[in-house]
Design a protein that fits this description.
The protein has two domains: 76 residues, no CATH class; 39 residues, Laminin, CATH 2.10.25. The protein has a two-stranded antiparallel ribbon with strand order 1-2. Strands 3-4 form a two-stranded antiparallel sheet. The radius of gyration is 17 Å and the shape is globular. The protein has two helices and eight strands. Helix content is 21%, strand content 17%. The chain is α+β, with helices and mostly antiparallel strands. The longest helix is centred in the N-terminal third of the chain and has 15 residues. This is Sushi, von Willebrand factor type A, EGF and pentraxin domain-containing protein 1. InterPro entries: Dev_Signal_Modulators, EGF. Keywords: Disulfide bond, EGF-like domain, Signal.
Length: 131
């Protein structure tokens, strides 16, 4: 059995704590197609940084904590669901994107697309390299 360094041991402890707290449980999708087990890059850099207690697991790839999604964990799933619910019941005006969202992206507010991984851009037209 290979010996683990202190930093990798702490990383696995943090991963276990994150999983117990629901980072990948509760019906949320694995980030950017990553499924456990996967390898963390201890020198990974996420710029902009991961938000809402997200973990930078590879360059420009965040593992979001439960309840958050997006490339930098910037979207609160509960707020998004409330917006969709309110919209469906006539409380908010229609979200209109003058240019359509591409590659499975969703129009979440006027002229604002929420893109599915690995796409980005104002219309989800750009494919990001994951490695």
């Amino acid at each position: 059995m290979a010996a683990f360094s202190q930093s990798s041991s702490l990383l696995w402890i943090y991963l276990c704590m994150a999983l117990l707290a629901g980072a990948c449980l509760g019906g949320s999708d694995s980030p950017r197609g990553v499924s456990l087990p996967f390898v963390f890059d201890l020198k990974a850099v996420c710029d902009p940084p991961c938000r809402h207690a997200g973990i930078c697991i590879r360059n420009s790839t965040c593992l979001c904590s439960r309840g958050y999604e997006g490339e930098t964990c910037q979207y609160d799933q509960l707020q998004t669901k409330q917006y969709v619910y309110s919209f469906a019941h006539g409380f908010l005006s229609t979200a209109v994107c003058k240019k359509p969202c591409l590659n499975g992206g969703k129009c979440v507010s006027p002229d604002k697309c929420r893109c599915r991984a690995p796409f980005s851009g104002s219309q989800c037209e750009e494919r990001k390299k994951l490695f």
